[in-house]
Amino acid sequence: MKAKTTIFRSALAVVLLFLVTTQSYATFSYTISFTASGSTATVGSVEVKNLTKGTTATVASGNTLTLTDVSTSVNALSVDDGGIRISQNAGAGTSTLTFYATQAGNAQVAAYALDGRKVTGLSTRLEAGDNSLELSLPTGMYVIRVSGTGYSYTAKLQNQASTATQAGIKFLTHSNVEASAPQKSKATATETITMTYTAGDQLLYTATSGAYIASVPDVTNGSKTVNFNFADIPTSAIPSGTFTMGSPTTEVNRIDDERQYEVTLSAFRMSKYEITNAQYAAFLNAKGIGSNGIWASAPVYKTQTLIYADNSSGLTYSGSQWVPVAGYENAPVINVTWYGATEYATYIGGTLPTEAQWEYACRAGTTAPFNTGNYLTNLQANYNWAYPYNDGINSVTTYPGMTQAVGTYPANAWGLFDMHGNVWEWCNDWYGTYPTTTQTNPTGATTGFYRVFRGGGWYSDAQDCRSAFRAYGTPYDSSSIIGFRLVFVP
Question: Which of 447, 451, 466, 490 is nearest to 245 (CA)?
Fold first, then answer.
């Protein structure tokens, strides 16, 4: 079977940096603007953080920006950053966070991994004065954010040693302090944006949406454009490992292009679910993409159609915006091209999976034709139940005949849903012949005419849903049985 695809993107923030280097100093002029996917209310603020102390910045009128000065040393055991202090308790494997609340009220404290995921959070009422909280975090680097009525703090924490198996935050103590801890002065909203710092320093540009934090480290020369993108995309951690890609010659109904070879992959994260109609519609509307599905200002594919309307179980254009067909908001997006899937992935800060990543994640440590074993039943996936695999028997043979809400069927061992059936999923690779030698993090053929998609769809026979089965279509193809999911670095 040959197939088609569609593109998916979500837009939020663009940060443009223009750099001028002079001897031992670099001066940055930049513009920051952003819009939220769906509603601007989902975005809190955009922050400019200088990781080297002693530097200054001013903020231009019209931008919701704050400046926070964060310690550069990743090995520092403590941070005193104008109102927020962190000390590590090596013996207990925890850290103590102390900060000054300018007034009583609700406060939010959260720890984020540097890939943007919210690791843990606490929402509680605190009194004015110094408040101490205990952070239990696995070993690693984190961005700690504290916000309440009249105050907001951010600090970077390198958790060097920890026995924590589950992240958590709990209240410890409160002391009534009359005077506020010293805080960094914030620029007025009438000045132009300037920033000067010593060459070799780094900046961390951060935007937040509550559940996610987008952080981008910068360097001291060259220009840079940064997209801050927020979407609620749950992911599963996929461990590094080695597996045999393809199918053995004994596998029933195997295809010749499934020749086996050994692949070693680095760890990555993959979206638990296929990207949905609602998620894709939010992106299209945020970017003002019209009924022709073309995004004229797209980062790469400015003339390509990203998606086609579908009034059965996809997205329709109402005259001013894209809307999911009623009842299919949480079904996978369809009729999206490979261009569209790729642009969306780039915007969100991820990629389409390589073909090797997809098969490795689908198998989740298994070697049978399916991650469910030798058969795929009507209780395990959305496909054409009238055509089970090999000698499999289905209790129901009349299949749904269209997409189902993501997560309707059980996940595999690595927490990924619908890797078999529902919709085919675009991969990043050009379609080509498998290599004959062991590969590490392969990315497929360097050129080609077709792009790969995997997993089978709601219209497929079970044999086409096998973990090793390969399908392909041109990157501008689209179909009611093709969608996609995303991959992120750990």
Answer: 466
261-265 and 439-440 strand pairing: parallel
DSSP assigned state of 324: E
Q: Could you tell me which of 255, 282, 273 has the C-alpha nearest to residue 415?
A: 273
According to DSSP, the residues that pair with 143 across neighbouring strands are: 112, 156
Residue whose structure tokens are 């993501």:
406
The whole-angstrom separation of Cα 370 and Cα 297 is: 41
Condensed to tens digits (0 to 9), the pLDDT of residues 221-237 reads 444 555 555 566 888 88
Q: C-alpha distances in angstroms, 318 versus 139, 310, 323, 470, 478?
A: 49, 12, 7, 36, 20
CA 210 – CA 45 distance, rounded (Å): 10
Residue 208 Cα distances to 4, 64, 119, 489, angstroms: 35, 12, 14, 19
Neighbouring CB atoms inside 10 A of 1's CB total: 16
How far apart (Å, rounded) are the C-alpha atoms in residues 191 and 227?
A: 24
Q: Are 287 and 424 in contact (CB under 8 A)?
A: no
Q: What angle, 0 to 180 degrees and rounded to 10, lies between the N-to-C axes of helices 338-348 and 277-286?
A: 80
Contact indicator for 363, 400 with CB cutoff of 8 Å: no
**Tens digit of pLDDT for each residue in 262-302?**
999 999 989 999 999 999 998 898 788 999 999 999 989 99
Tens digit of pLDDT for each residue in 17-35? Answer: 211 222 222 333 333 333 3
| CA dist., res. 158 & res. 140, Å (int) | 6
pLDDT score for 166: 76
| Mean pLDDT within 85-89 | 78
Phi/psi of residue 339, each to 5°?
Answer: -60, -45
- The count of other CB atoms within 10 Å of the CB of residue 190 is 10
Q: What's the start-to-end Cα distance of the chain, in Å?
A: 33
